[in-house]
Amino acid sequence: MAGLFQVLWGAGAGKFNQAQPLEGTDGKPLEIPYNGDNERVKGICTKPWAVDWDHDGDLDLVVGNFEGGFYLFSGQGEGAFDPVPEMLETDSGPLKIEGAHGDPFLVDWDGDGDLDMLSGSSQGGAQWAENIAEEGKVPEFSGFQTLIKGSGYQNSFELLKWQDLKKPQHSTRVWATDLNEDGKPDLLLGDSVALASIANGLSKNEFEEKREAWQKKWDKASQMPYVEGDDEANQKRNEVFRDLYFQKAEFLNEDRTGFVWAYLRK
Asked: Could you give the CA distance from residue 204 to residue 210 in angstroms, rounded to a whole number?
């Protein structure tokens, strides 16, 4: 996740040039607009998707943002884009997933010849929005519907082994492809999960005692306000949280990882 959209131009023989930010026709890097630090998450891109949105022969960019919404940067040819994006909307308001982390994947999901939108979510699972535009028109979407129910956010201290996992966890990213070559698009879901166990040498009671003491410190730190414009105070606040994060290792082993799950279309 970042505020910029970057491309690695192919250099032949399986090699690539150094990443470069995509630019608008004004010569400046493309960015999702936001107002001030309080809206910073609006400017974080979670995934770009290149597609000829308006059927004019130029690639456009559909991008998801951290809040779970979607924007369109119109292509102007030769790799340049309109610097001012358009927020994608439905009849009832902004096009937005349940949860956060918009993850656009455009594919003809319902087999009617136009491009629908799939998305993962911070809460896990997969969602889709049907393209309801007339044939040949610019896409219009209904609201998102659930394809695969999300697992929700993981408890920070949930003791979890990979063998215990039964479904994708949170922060999913979606990809559609015909895995079994039956002519129907299937789903691949990548997730994020923290596998966790009690630190070596600790009993369950010792783990609970240390966890409870750590939680009290965390709750106290959470009362420290973020002060816009006061870099020194905010740096101290960040240092407190950083130290607490590393202190978790005194009672908890964590392996932050992820898995890929395959769902075959019936």
From this structure: 10
